[in-house]
Write a structure and sequence with these properties.
This protein is 48% helix and 6% strand. It has 422 residues and is mainly alpha-helical. The strands form 3 sheets. A 3-stranded mixed β-sheet has the order 1-6-5, with helices on both faces. Strands 2-4-3 form a 3-stranded antiparallel β-sheet. A hairpin with a 2-residue loop joins β7 and β8. α9 runs antiparallel to α15 and α14 runs parallel beside α16. The model has no long low-confidence stretch (mean pLDDT 90). The structure holds iron/sulfur cluster. Iron/sulfur cluster binds next to α3. The site of iron/sulfur cluster has 12 residues, from α3.
């Protein structure tokens, strides 16, 4: 028997969204299909009308084919969706119907989140989310597996299941820390310190109130502890790990433009490109990321650019970063079913690395226009890029990311690569 899970709206105040029809989500955006989507698209018999099969299999999953410019094969010249135009909204793939909303089910409810890959979300344009909850719920409640099938509560650490109230408490303390008034580099450093401290703690017998007490002590100590533990600049190997993380979070193999390479060839190609990123330094050019990103920036240019603290847009950048971090955490997107089923501690660690990659990418984007520091639009481009893959790209939930995080857990690696980006 199926159980219906209540959908919890995103609680982040001040987050706005209305669709402004920019069409960006249909361009340069890989759409993964569920089995029911693929069946529906096949039933619509597009092959003869499009002259090509709109579905491409890649690494055991099915995707919508893209044209060589990255746009969806169904995108019409006037910006409309051809599936929507001919068969109606509910005939589109679920990912298209839901975007930019996302759902993270747990044991008794499903948490709604929102993707910052959407330009309106990132610019905070439109109606306040909490004024349009019922509209959003209508979209996400149509019998989706995320609203009818409970999932286990996220674990605290690997092999250590969470007890009631522990995750809420941890989430609350993280958000309070993120929103405090202090330089962004300080707040990011604090998050990295918490993630590192929790990942080395023995939590098997620290449960319930004792776990909350530990989290409280760690956060209460941050203000005093961080200045006592200044960090050295990252080593070359730690920088290589960060650059590998940037690659993994921006990777888009575009299997659908020319047809899908086999699983072995695509994995080989991904490993080769990953190596280019990890080895990149000095006057070597940063490999191209995609539309809107310069391909003539050197690794040196990125590493020598100051972070957002030096930008005239610094207060606006701070607002955006804080809003994105908060929405990610409250939207259930950094651990549990919203993040590859990862535990809270592993998910938090990966999230800090994602924050670091946002800082690095904002500098890359700024360097592409020879700006002296990242502006708000550079940061928007960076967050938009990161949020495309977060929780979706299969390799981010795999062994290579685990190894990267394990390496950065040593020698203050996460702190050394993270705070310097801001
Ligand atoms: S199927 Fe339609 S809504 Fe989905 S990406 Fe393609 S054009 Fe856009």
């Amino acid at each position: 028997m199926k159980i219906s899970l209540p959908v919890l709206p995103l609680a982040t105040p001040r987050q706005r969204y209305s669709c402004h029809g920019c069409g960006n989500c249909c361009r340069d955006f890989t759409v993964q299909l569920r089995a029911a989507d693929a069946r529906r698209i096949r039933d619509q018999a597009w092959d003869s009308r499009l002259g090509v099969n709109p579905i491409v299999a890649f690494r055991g999953r099915e995707y919508l084919r893209q044209r060589t410019d990255g746009s969806c094969v169904f995108l019409l010249d006037d910006g409309r969706c051809r599936v929507h135009a001919e068969y109606g909204f509910e005939s589109k793939p679920i990912a298209c119907q839901m975007f930019p909303y996302m759902l993270a089910p747990s044991e008794a409810s499903s948490q709604m989140g929102v993707s910052f890959a959407c330009q309106s979300v990132i610019e905070n344009k439109g109606k306040a989310l909490n004024e349009q909850v019922s509209d959003a719920l209508k979209i996400v409640m149509r019998g989706l597996p995320e609203t009818v099938q409970p999932r286990p509560r996220a674990a605290i650490g690997r092999g250590r299941l969470a007890e009631r109230g522990e995750l809420d408490y941890l989430r609350g303390r993280i958000i309070t820390w993120i929103l405090r008034e202090s330089p962004m580099s300080h707040r990011v450093d604090g998050l990295a310190w918490i993630a590192q401290s929790l990942s080395t703690a023995r939590l098997t017998n620290v449960r319930g109130e004792r776990f909350k007490e530990l989290v409280k002590i760690l956060f209460d100590a941050l203000g005093d502890e961080l200045p006592l533990h200044p960090i050295a600049p990252p080593s070359l190997r730690q920088v290589a790990m960060l650059q590998g993380a940037v690659f993994a979070r921006t990777e888009d193999p575009k299997p659908v433009a020319q047809g899908a390479p086999g699983r072995f060839m695509s994995t080989l190609s991904q490993l080769r490109r990953s190596r280019l990123w990890r080895k990149g330094r000095g006057a070597t050019l940063v490999p191209a990321i995609g539309l809107g990103w310069s391909s003539s920036v050197t690794f040196d240019a990125v590493s020598t650019l100051p972070g957002i603290h030096a930008s005239p847009d610094s207060p606006l950048c701070d607002e955006l970063l804080s809003r994105w971090m908060r929405a990610s955490i409250e939207g259930g997107r950094i651990w549990g079913s919203g993040y590859y089923g990862w535990s809270a501690i592993d998910g938090l660690t990966a999230f800090v690395l994602s924050i670091a990659t946002v800082g690095w990418l904002s500098k890359l984007h700024a360097a592409g226009s020879s700006a002296p520091s990242p502006s708000l639009s550079d940061l928007q481009a960076a967050i938009g890029r990161i949020d495309r893959t977060s929780g979706r790209a299969i390799w981010l939930g795999g062994w290579s990311e685990r190894m990267r995080l394990a390496y950065l857990a040593r020698d203050d690696g996460l702190r050394r690569v993270a705070s310097v980006q801001f």
